[in-house]
Structures are given as C-alpha cells and as structure tokens.
Design goal:
The complex is a heterodimer of chains A (111) and B (163). By secondary structure, chain A is mainly alpha-helical. Helix content of chain A is 81%, strand content 5%. Chain A has one domain. The radius of gyration of chain A is 18 Å and the shape is elongated. The chains are: A mainly alpha (111), B mainly alpha (163).
C-alpha cells in the first residue's frame, strides 16, 4: 500500500516536472528577446530539475542512490544560476541593452 | 586575514566534508579504495591551502544554517514558477520587463554570490550584474520586481552570511 502511494507520488512529480520543462521550452520560443527568454529557461532549470529529481529520489527510496541524486540536485542548483549569470553578464557588458524600464531603489529609503 | 587556528579549523572541516563525500560516492569499503580516498582528500586540502582558500572566509560555517534558507527559497521558487508558467501560457503574454538596481545588504563576496544565485534561481528574476555592492536584476514583470523586494531576499541572505 505504502509502495503504491510512493509510486503515485513519484509519477506525479515526474509528470509535473516534465510539464514545467515543456512550458519552459514554449516560453523560450514565445518570449520576444534575449533577456526575457532567459526567464523561460530558468523555469526548466530550477522547477523542472527539482521536480524530476525528487520524483527519481522517491523511486530510489532510502539508499545511496537517493543521496547521489540529491547531490546532483544540489550541484545543478548551484551551477545553473552561475552559468545564467555568466551569460547575462556577458550580454550586458558587451553592450546589449535590456528592453526594459529601469528602476533604481535605495534600500535605506525603501525600508 | 585569518590566524593560524582559524585556518586549521577551516582545513579540518573541508577534510571532513571531502571524506564524507568520498565514502558516500563510492559506497565500496575495500582497503585500497579507502587508502586512495584518504590520499585524494589530503591532496585536495593541500592544493586548497596552496591557492589560499583558507585565508579568506570559506563559507563552510554557513552549512548548518542552509536547510532553513533552502526551505524558504524552495517556497519562493514554487510560487514564482507558477507565476511565470501562467504568463508564458497566457495568450496575451502579459510581460512588462523591468530592471531594478538595489544595494546588496550582505557585504562579503560569498553573501553577494548567494544572493545573486538565489535571485537567478527563482524564475522571473535574473541577476545581470553585481558591481561594488549593487545588484542589477532583470525581472519579467513589474509585479515580479515588487515581489522580489517584498520577499526580503536581501535581508535573509545578509542574516544567513553574517559571522
């Protein structure tokens, strides 16, 4: 019975994770320019990764496999944003202007 | 600059983490593999010392505080994921790209790196630049920018990284 429930939970996580990966792909096609498309990619990067790897951890159960999957998750979540930052920063520094409204906030006045 | 005792403490905690990850990764406990593991852990600590890893703050002292921070971050990620998914799937594509700049409350390089990564991790916001304590963040919508300022990511990361 418990195994059955864990199986269902893991399938729900895997399918919704795949859903987020798909939505990220749709977003990367639909959004208009470089900086906005990056947001869609981060949907795939974070939510998709978290859901799919958690679903796989449920399949692995309490074992070394799950610990390794968790380590993969942590490393992906640490290196993913670093790579995104490298990409965004390179674009910004080479003079690509974000097509956006610019707001400067002074935290000392703000809070 | 840290004194000798602090450096030794940092080296020992790095050694412990390396040994634990070697044991978990291999899952094999034959003498030859354990000896190889001990050798590579010591080599890594020696190389880390040579590149001056222990003279500045290493961030290893943050590890006990990370689980609470991760839980908060996970909730933020789930919330903003659904918002971005809704925007992407809606036929009108209601985006209003905004770039906000604000001063980072964490003062050290580790705190600012963690803040930048946490912002990039939550969908809908990407860190574009960290320069002299100022963060430049690109947001998919104006509401997303307001949410970021309201969620107090800045203050939480500062609390996480303070000594």
């Amino acid at each position: 019975m418990v195994e059955y429930l864990i199986d269902i939970g893991s399938w729900v996580l895997l399918i919704s994770g795949s859903g987020f990966v798909l939505i990220g792909g749709i977003g990367a096609l639909r959004l208009p320019n470089f900086y906005t498309r990056m947001h869609a990619a981060s949907l795939t990067d974070t939510m998709g990764t978290i859901l799919i790897l958690t679903g796989m951890m449920l399949q692995g159960g309490l074992s070394l496999v799950s610990i390794k999957l968790f380590a993969i998750l942590v490393f992906l979540l640490l290196t993913g944003p670093t790579a995104t930052y490298a990409l965004a920063n390179a674009a910004l520094l080479s003079g690509m202007k974000p097509d956006a409204e610019n707001v400067k906030i002074d935290e000392r006045n703000h809070s | 600059m840290a004194n000798r005792r602090q450096q030794l403490q940092r080296a020992l905690s790095l050694l412990l983490i390396l040994i634990a990850s070697w044991l978990l990764w291999s899952g094999l406990y034959k003498p030859i593999l354990l000896a190889l593991g001990a050798f590579s852990c010591l080599l890594c600590v020696y190389l880390a010392k040579r590149i001056g890893f222990f003279t500045d703050a290493t961030g290893l002292h943050l590890i006990p505080r990370l689980p609470a921070y991760w839980c908060w971050l996970a909730i933020e990620i789930v919330k903003s994921s659904f918002e971005v998914a809704k925007i992407v799937l809606s036929p009108k594509l209601p985006i209003s790209p905004t770039v906000i700049e604000f001063e980072a409350l964490p003062k050290g390089p580790i705190g600012q790196a963690i803040l930048g990564n946490a912002i990039t991790l939550s969908p809908g916001t990407v860190t574009l630049d960290v320069y002299q304590g100022w963060m430049k963040v690109h947001c998919l919508t104006k509401a997303g920018a307001a949410d970021l300022l309201q969620s107090d990511a800045n203050g939480r990361t500062a609390a996480l990284t303070e000594e």
